[in-house]
Amino acid sequence: MEENDRLSEVLQIICDRPEPRVSIGEIMDEFGPRAFGAALLVFSAPNLLPLPPGSSTVLGAPLVLLSPQVAFGAEHPWLPKRVSNQNLRRGDLRGAFGKLIPMLEKVEHVSRPRLEFLFGPVGDRVIGAVCTALALILIIPIPLGNLLPAAAVSAFALGLIQRDGVFALAGYLLTAISACVLVLGASVVVASLRHIADLWPWS
What we know:
The protein is mostly helical and 203 residues long. Helix content is 69%, strand content 3%.
C-alpha cells in the first residue's frame, strides 16, 4: 500500500487474490506504510456488524497489541510470530471486507487531509493511548456495549489513514460518549447489586 493508494483498493486486492488462505502477517505487509491505521480499522469496524458472541474479544486482541505501539511512537507494527503466522480463510475475509469496502469508498470520496495539527508525534501518540483504552473495553464481552468503542477506534483509524482531523475529532467525541455510557451502565449495575443485597434474607 503506497501513500496514495486507497485502503478500499488494497482490501479489494486482498479479497481478489486466488490463494484460499492468507496470513495476518501478509495482510499487514499489504497495508504498507499506513499499516497501523489500516489494521486498527480492519479489526475494529467488523464489531459494528452483527457477529457471533465472543467475536469482539477475538477482534479486540490485535487492537490491544497494536494500539500501544501507536502510543509509543513505533514506526512499524509488530505482532508475535504466532499471531502473524495465523492463517485466515480468504472467503471469510471476502464476507467481512465485502461489507466494509463500499462504506470505505464513500468515506474516501469525502475525506481529505485537514486539521492535521491533531496528528504528528504527539497527536498520533494520544490517539494510540485512547485506542488502547478502547481496545481493553472491546475485549470484554459486553452485550451491545462494544459498538461505541468500536466506532471510536474506527473513526481514529480513518483519521490516521486519511490524516483527516474531522475523523479524529469524531473519535474523541465517540470516546467521551462511550465513557459516559460505561460509567452510567456500571452505576446501574452497582445500584442493582446493592438493591439485591438489601433484599437478601441474610441470617
